[in-house]
Amino acid sequence: MLPLTGLGAIGVLASACSPLGVLNGLAPDRLTARDLPYGNGPRRTLDVYVPANGPKAAPVVVFFYGGSWNSGSKADYRFVGGALAASGFVTIIPDYRVYPEVRFPDFLDDCAAAFAWAGANAGRFGGGTRLVLMGHSAGAYNAAMLALDPTYLARAAAPRPAAMLGLAGPYDFLPLVDPELKIIFGQPPTPPDTQPINHVDGRNPPMLLLAGDADTTVLPRNTTRLAARVAASGGQVESRIYPGIDHKEIVGAIGVPFRFLAPTLMDSARFIAAHASVPSRAA
Fold it and tell me: Rounded to an integer, what distance in angstroms lies between the CA atom of residue 23 and that of residue 258?
C-alpha cells in the first residue's frame, strides 16, 4: 500500500478512502494489456499502458515499484502507468520476485528480463526502440543497477537504455542495519558491488535523480552522492531535491489529485521526452 500520510489539504479525501485508492481511481484508464508473462511464475508478469492516439514509435518507460525488495504489486501503480501513458509514453510495469522467494541479485535479473521483453515487444503497442528505466525507492535501485552495471541487461539480451530516472532511490546505503536487508543483500560484510554508486564509470545513460528533502526512509544523500559521483566521472546526470517532500509523496505526486505536491510528473515527462523521443527529421 501507499499510505501518503501528512498531506494536510487532502485529509478529507484520505478519510473516505485510501490515498492509493484515490490515485488509482482518478488515473487515466490506459491499461491495455494485463499479466503478460516475461518469464516463469506469477511474479514475472507485466502490465502495459498505452497512450490514446499516441505518436508512432512512442518512448517506452519500464517502471519498477518499490517495497524494500520484499513486497509490492504492479496493480498498486495503475496511477503511474496511466499518468505516463497520458503523457505520451508506452509504459510497462512488471512484477518481480522478492524476498523471501529470492535474494540479491535475482530480482535484478527479473527486472532485466522485463526490460528485454519491453525491447522485443513494445512495438506491438506503438512503442519505439528507445527505452527508459524508471523506478521509485527499491525500484529506483533496480533501475540504477541496470543502468550502471551492464552485466544484468547483457545477460538478458536486453537493449541499452536510452535513459534512467530514479525517484527517492537507495544508491549508497552501506552499512546495513536492518536484519532482513542483511539477508537480502548478503550477511556482513555486504559486498560493495551491491551498491549502484560503486558501478559508476562515466559511461551511463543519461540519468535524472529526484528526491525530497523530507525523506527519512531513503535519505536524499543517496541521490546527491550518486549524482556527484556520476558527474565527477564525466557521466550525464541531472538531480533535483524537492523541498518538504517525503518518500511516498514524491511518487504520489505523479497522480491526480496530488500533483500540487511536487512537479514529479512534469520533470519526468520532460526528461523522458528529451532522451527517448525519436528525433524529427529536417525538412
Answer: 8
Which CATH fold topology does 16-276 show? Answer: Rossmann fold (3.40.50)
3-state secondary structure of 35: strand
pLDDT tens digits, residue range 3-39? Answer: 344 444 333 333 336 888 899 999 989 999 999 999 9
Give yes or no for a contact between 25 and 80, defined as CB atoms under 8 angstroms apart: no
Place of cell 532522451: 275
**Predicted model pTM:** 0.92
Residue of 144, 145, 150, 149 whose CA lies nearest to 164: 144
pLDDT of 134 > 70? The answer is: yes
The CA distance from 218 to 222, in Å, is 7
Q: Is the dihedral of CA 152, 158, 164, 167 positive or negative?
A: negative
Q: Where are the domains of the chain?
A: 16-276
Q: What does each C-alpha distance from 103 to 181, 184, 247 come to in angstroms?
A: 9, 5, 24
- Contact between 250 and 203 under an 8 Å Cβ cutoff? The reply is no
Q: For residue range 207-236, what is the model confidence (pLDDT) as tens digits?
A: 999 999 999 999 999 999 999 999 999 999
